[in-house]
Amino acid sequence: MQRKFDGDQLVLASHNKGKLREISALLAPFGIHVSSAAEHGLEEPEETEDTFAGNARIKAHYAAKETGLPALSDDSGIAVEALNGAPGVYTADWAETPNGRDFPMAMEKTWKLLEEKNAPFPRKAAFVCTLCLAWPDGHDELFEGRVEGQVIWPARGEHGFGYDPMFVPEGFDITFGEMDQDKKQEMSHRADAFAKLVKGCFE
Ligand SMILES: O=P(O)(O)OP(=O)(O)OP(=O)(O)OC[C@H]1O[C@@H](n2cnc3c(O)ncnc32)[C@H](O)[C@@H]1O
Ligand SMILES: [Mg+2]
């Protein structure tokens, strides 16, 4: 059977350096020439949907249409159980300030809300990721990944990006910010979604 992805070029439809690093490493074994949205001079489309899949679609289809190449996007975030899944699709928005994104501030805000609610411990959370592979002809494939864990405070660790320093995956006592990044790549929400993408499109 012919595999669904039969090209040799892919645009990564993301402007997030942490994601670009992780997804490029995951793609490395497949011998695909990878370029980024920034290299193509693409703008960041507005993420107007209220689901990960909806926003992943917006980003991938925009990049595929603009470049004429298949494009892979990632829409992700952290869902905290006691906050009814917030910040969820609004994970990046919670970090927005007039001077750019401030993740220490966003993590502290998340923790303060849990304190105000007197939420029980462990304060369960999951990182979730939807990958969208879209082609210039307008068709696409979606893959969802997830990793369960809890949020902790104070945040710990200098590795990774975003909310990594406050997330402890299930079965561990260190945060994604403290974890060796090869280890995060084995077990993250992004790695989980990517494994499904490989099965669905690269095999
Ligand atoms: O939309 P693009 O350009 O891809 O980049 P973005 O940073 O805006 O990405 P999202 O809109 O998907 O928002 C995802 C948010 O969730 C956070 N996030 C996602 N995956 C993460 C991970 O593996 N570790 C830490 N934080 C993560 C990330 O920091 C963002 O604030
Ligand atoms: Mg975004």
List the defining traits of the structure above.
203 residues, alpha/beta, Maf protein, six-stranded mixed beta sheet, globular, binds inosine 5'-triphosphate, nucleotide metabolism, RdgB/HAM1, nucleotide binding, dITP/XTP_pyrophosphatase
What does this structure look like?
This protein is of the alpha/beta class. The chain has a single domain, classed as Alpha-Beta Complex (Maf protein), CATH 3.90.950.10. 31% of the residues lie in helices and 24% in strands. The protein has 5 helices and 8 strands; from the N terminus they run E-H-E-H-E-E-E-H-E-E-E-H-H. The strands form 2 sheets. A 6-stranded mixed beta sheet has the order 2-1-3-6-7-8. Strands 4-5 form a two-stranded antiparallel ribbon. Helix 4 packs across helix 5. 37% of the residues are buried. The model has no long low-confidence stretch (mean pLDDT 97). The structure holds inosine 5'-triphosphate and magnesium ion. The site of magnesium ion has 2 residues, from loops. Its EC number is 3.6.1.66. This is dITP/XTP pyrophosphatase.
CATH topology name: Maf protein
Number-wise, the strands total 8
Output the CATH class name: Alpha Beta
Provide the domain count: 1
Write a short abstract of this structure.
By secondary structure, the protein is of the alpha/beta class. It has five helices and eight strands; from the N terminus they run βαβαβββαβββαα. It has a single domain, classed as Maf protein.
